[in-house]
Each structure stands twice: as C-alpha cells, then as structure tokens.
Amino acid sequence: MSSRPRVRVPDTAKAGEIILIRALLSHPMESGQRRDSSGTIIPRKIVNSFTCTFNREPVFSCDLEPAISANPYFEFHAKIVKSGEFEFAWTDDDGTIYTHKHTIEVA
Amino acid sequence: MSGLTRRHFGLLLGASASSLALPTYLRAQEKPRVVVIGGGPGGATVAKYVARDSAGAIDVTLINETETFTTCFFSNLYLGDFQSFDDITHDYDKLVSNYGIKKITGRAASVDREAKTVTLADGSTVPYDRLVLAPGIDIIYDSVPGYSQEAAQIAPHAWKAGPQTQLLKEKLDAVEDGQNIVMVAPPNPFRCPPGPYERISMFAHVLKKKGFTRSKIFVLDYKESFSKQALFTEGWEAHYPGMVEWYGPDVHGGVKSVDAAAGTVETDLDVFEGALLNIIPSQRAGAIAVDAGVTNEAGWVPIDENSMRSKVDDSIFVLGDASVAGDMPKSAFSANSQAKVAAINIRADLTDARAFPARYSNTCWSLIETNDGVKVGAQYEPKDGKIAAVETFISQPGEDADLRKATYEESVGWYAGIVEDVFG
C-alpha cells in the first residue's frame, strides 16, 4: 500500500496574503508496540519527520512520534510575499522520503 | 381531546356517519379500515399486529411497491458473502393467508387527508379510517454535488435494498488488487447509523479474502464522528491494517463533486479515485409522507412519542425511518418496535382494545470481520416530549473473541426472529 501525499495549497495568492496549507499522508504509523494475532511485536514503522519549505527556506517542520495516529494530517498558515515553490517532505523510519511540490503565483 | 378519548371520538364519528349513510343491515358488517403504506419492518409489522390482534374486527390493507421485500438490514452481510440475496428477500404470502391482510402491489401516489383516501399510481383509491405511513427513506441525490439517479447506476448508493444492492455487489466483486474503493458517507440523520461502517468492513473483508494487499478503501464522511467509531476503528486496524482510510470534513474539507463515470470524488483536499464509488447521500422521509403534508422542514415526520401518531393528523401513524423518533436510530429494530406501539393505539382507536404505555427498544449489530460482531442499543420511553433512551448498552473495545462471536450469533438469531415477526 503506497504512501501518497495529498496537499492543498492555493495556486495563486495576493502579496502579503496569509494562506492555509493542508497536508495529509496515507501512512500506517505503526507504533512498534502492537502485537499481531500470534503475539509477535509488529515492527515500528512511522513517518518520523515532516518539513515544509518555500523556495528552500523553512516554513514549518516537526518530529512525529509513535503515538501519532495513522495518516498524519497537518494544517498550518503561511504568509505569501512572492511567487515560489512549496516543497513538502515526510521521512519514513526506513529512510524513504515522500515529497510533494506545489507552485504558487503572486498575482 | 380532553374529556373525550380519541377512541370515543372516533367511535362517535363512525357511528353518526354510518347511521346517516347506510341502511341498518350493512352497518353491522362494516369494519374499520386500516391502510398501511410500506411493507418493511415497520409497515408489515403493524399490518400483522393490527390484523392478528383484532381477530378480524379491523380490515387491513398493506400497500407495497414490490411483490417481495429485500431487507436493508443484513444487506451488508450479503455484500460480504455471509448471506445470499435470497436469504434477505421475503414475501407477504403468510401475512395474506394467516391474517387476512389485503396486499396491494403498487405505488401509493397521494393521500387525501380530508377524504381519508389513498390514491395509487394506477388511479385507484383506497379509503381508510387509520392510515399508517411506513415509507422508509428517499435519497436526496443532489445533496452530493455531481450525484444523480443516473449516476447511481454507475456509483450505487445501495441505501435502499434491492437492485442497487446487487449492483454494488457486482462492482465490489469486480474490484482488482490495487484498485481503490471510495465511499461518501452521509450527514445525520440517516438510515442505519452504523451501516456505512459495517459496509466498509464487508468491503475490506472481501478484498482481504481475495488476498489483495494494494487496494485501499477511502471513506469521505460528512460527519466528524460516527456510530461505534472506536469499535470499527479498532477492528479495521486489527483485521485490515492500512486498508481503510476514514476522513471527516475537517481533513477532506468537504465533498466538492462526484464524477461517477470517471470514478472520482473531488474534495477540498484532493481528488480520490476509485474503481468502485459508493455514494450515500442525505435522506428524507419517503415521498408519500411529503405528499401527505406530515413532514417537517427537514423532511422527516414528527410523531407523538406515546403512540407514533402524526403530530398534525390524528388519523395518521408514522413508523420507522420516516419518523422523528427522538433518541431512537433509524433501524429495522426501531421500526418493528414502533409498529407494535402504533398497533395497540390503532386498535384502541377503532375497537374496544386497551392502549398500554409505550415502551420501545432497539439494538444495532454490526459485523466487522468473520465472528467479530459488535452492538449498540437501548430501551426507550416517552419522556419530556420525545422518545428518550432510558437504558443504553454498547460493545467495548478489546472484548475477547468468544464474546464477539456470541454477539455475531445473537445478530443472526435476531434476524431470523425479526423476519418471522414481520413477515411470518
């Protein structure tokens, strides 16, 4: 089952406008503390960090812990001063980085 | 009505009307007439109980659109291959032969409350002294942008059992590994509160049984929370890890449009693609209740909590999903329970039978995976102007497998029992 980002960012904004950014990643966030039906511990597999940059400058980032539910969802605001590209990245325990890019134009 | 009970009022009216209109020899043979529209767990039950318990003193006519009745309850178990379509389809033969109920197969088109007649789609009319409306729900297709009755031929709602249920089963069985299912789940109030989530469980059961590992089931819900949520969520994680993704409106941001042909549901967050779309829109009382002028602004029928009598017409009783039944959910069990209260009151209106204080009960069972049954339910009484829950119970997360199996077996026993009670 693939982990697919779903991100909502406006395509355009006015200079100085504060926009809402919403980002969801399908991911099981397996805590490493659950057991399967045979009693064996299910190995930990979580997304342990999330970052959002704009033109490579940090906008928002955070670490995620095993207690966070499957399919982590973030909602945050950003002030747009110029056109540019948002880049979103989720880092999995196994090293995989799931990314998503979105360009926004200042009208 | 003070000083004069409804029963006496009705009897006086009946007596004066018939003595004016009819010669004496006919008067003795005239029976009060009860007409029931809708042959589901509410309508068929009230027809049976009135006919049986009045022992021929009341003439009962049951109007239903179809020859047979496929129950919406347990139709999810048909989707999950736990029941056959025949298992959940029943006829009215015993109601006719055992209790002398007149069965009319046809659509009730309108109600004339002044004349106290029901007009059928074929133009014929049926007079009544007491009318019972048990029409179930109508689907409000355009409550989901882009959805329509035509679209439902591709993206079934299957929230009224019958051909839609079979279409959904065909589409479910055609899903291939790696293809997704998208369900849009309705806002409150709606028929069968745990139904969408049991259905999700049955979808997942079918995919899992085929060994699928790459398919996902997305649920885009109009609600922030749902019935037995902790139980379903726990069950999905245990039995179908990673397969079910449920999102409320705070995450998906609202359903913007459904494209049945393209197999997409667009929300404010993203476009969700599915080989199977199951769109369950908002609902309201069946059209005949609207036509009769007994519905409220929201499209449901307010009732007197002591009797299931319409608040605007003393000669009309309303049962089941169509009614505003206070704390009771829209379920077959509820409708069946309400029907018995209505039957007592109808008999008290029309004969010298005695009415008893209303008591109602309901249980909603759901199957999450083979032998993993859960339930929620309550006893209800009239209280503070509504039907209020007085004792409630619900399955708990983490229950052991034996208890869950017993709960499932209880539901199978309940189904056999209610079907016998309604149609037997």
TrEMBL record, chain B:
Q: Report the Pfam families cross-referenced here.
A: FCSD-flav_bind, FCSD_central, Pyr_redox_2
Query: Does Flavoprotein count among this protein's keywords?
Result: yes
Spell out the InterPro entries in the cross-references: FAD/NAD-bd_sf, FAD/NAD-binding_dom, FAD/NAD-linked_Rdtase_dimer_sf, FCSD_central, FlavoCytC_S_DH_flav-bd, FlavoCytC_S_DH_flav-bd_sf, SQRD
Locate the transmembrane regions by residue number. Answer: none
Q: Any idea which UniProt keywords this protein has?
A: FAD, Flavoprotein
Q: Which residues form the FAD/NAD(P)-binding domain?
A: 33-150
Q: Matching Gene3D superfamilies, A to Z?
A: FAD/NAD(P)-binding domain, Flavocytochrome c sulphide dehydrogenase, flavin-binding domain
**Domain spans labelled Sulfide dehydrogenase [flavocytochrome c] flavoprotein chain central:** 165-281
* Domain called Flavocytochrome c sulphide dehydrogenase flavin-binding: residue spans: 358-423
Q: Which domain of life is it from?
A: Bacteria
Q: What is this protein called?
A: FAD-dependent oxidoreductase
The uppermost taxa in this organism's lineage are: Bacteria, Pseudomonadati, Pseudomonadota, Alphaproteobacteria, Hyphomicrobiales
